[in-house]
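User: Hey, my collaborator sent me this sequence without any context and asked if I could get a structure. I don't really work with proteins. Can you help?
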Amino acid sequence: MSTGFCSILLLVACLPWTAVAAPEAIQYPKSVILSYQIVGSPSSSAHPLATVLYDPVTLKYNLGSWTPPNLDTLKTTTPTSPRLVRILLPNGSSTVASLATFDNALNQNIDLWLSPDDGTIFSAAVTSTSPPPLSPEEERLRKKIERAKAKGRPLPSPTPKPKSKKAKKAGQDKETAKEEPVKVNLIPAAAGPAPILNTRKPPQVDADGREIPASEEQPEKTFFQKYWWLFLLAAIFTMGSSGGGEK
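Assistant: No problem. I've predicted the 3D structure and written it out in structure-token form, which is a compact way to encode the shape of the chain:
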């Protein structure tokens, strides 16, 4: 088999792998690796927490990895204050979260703040929220499923889907929370607060240079109030002219 034919076969074999990897790189042009460090731990080494691939323009993301701290291995028998975890970024920025944030019964939120210059992450924080509560129908179904599993019976059918828009949306939110227990929030830069400039007209002052309160300000004079003396002179001149003609 010639060398040229072998090169063609090797190129064809590599094409599927290239086609799979290219969309991932195009869809998520940036990535960030978060680490965590237990505050006050004898071992001060940092451990990988999460890898997030993201697009700073479309704000789409993909959570590549998630390795939270193991709460069972970090629990202590002596009563102490809540333990803290330092969330680290590659640029040296860090925030602090409670170790209870990573409880398996909670949903975690990773907040990432984007730089307005190049779209990199300049700050990160991890918080937690309680999962949405079950409705009465879902709670009854859960208990039925537990009883059926305990007795080895067939599982009951799921509850019917809601018909109203509000109920459908609530159901979709619950399903999203179940399917995505760790949510990433990409927060773009926003314009800061701007000062509100004073647009009032210059204040009026008295002869001593003191500002006259608004309640004491004189209203603007009318044309007659400004030039009343001209009308008076015109009236006197008219009366004098008419008197001289009679003589």
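In plain terms: The two ends are 141 Å apart (CA to CA). You can pass these tokens on to your collaborator as they are.
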